[in-house]
Amino acid sequence: MTIGSGGSSIVVPRNFRLLEELERGEKGIGDGTVSYGMDDGDDIYMRSWTGTIIGPLNSVHDGRIYQLKLFCDKDYPDKPPSVRFHSRISMACVSPDTGVVEPKKFHMLANWHRDYTMEDILMQLKKDMAAPLNRKVVQPPECTFF
Predict the structure, then answer these.
(1) Which residues, at least 6 apart from 55, have a Cβ–Cβ distance to it below 8 Å?
(2) How far is CA 32 from the centre of its chain?
(3) Peptide bond into 81 cis (omega under 30)
(4) What is the pLDDT of residues 126-140, one digit of tens each?
(5) d(CA 96, CA 146)
(6) Average pLDDT of the residues of the chain
(7) Is residue 117 over pLDDT 90?
(8) What is the 3-state secondary structure of 18-33?
(9) CA-CA distance, 8 to 23, in Å (whole number)?
(10) Are the beta carbons of 100 and 91 closer than 8 angstroms?
């Protein structure tokens, strides 16, 4: 996130940015079908996060709960986090063998902007679940994990 006007800008430091995201994630997002938080509250570098997406209505994902892992390396938010589904899922942008969201196949990661957040990633993944490409794809049995 950058702040400024009239051509000047201030870049918010990584840890402040992640603290903002943590606070927002703890408050809940929108209708409650997407959430995220830190894996380890003692991790002072705030690298490892867990996300949850409840599948969108009127799709094969309806009512399913998907767990994800997000890893924010030292270059976040200048570079995107790595994202991996812990729950098995069949989606065009997800490796069927590892659950990794492949940046080249997921527009938001391929065209990353510093202002994007983990919330944005989770919301876009949920939106993509409901897209025609993924809405009717046969899914693996629930309760299977990578």
Answers:
(1) 61, 62, 63, 64, 65, 66, 126, 129
(2) 15
(3) no
(4) 999 999 999 999 999
(5) 9
(6) 91
(7) yes
(8) HHHHHHHHHHCECCCC
(9) 27
(10) no
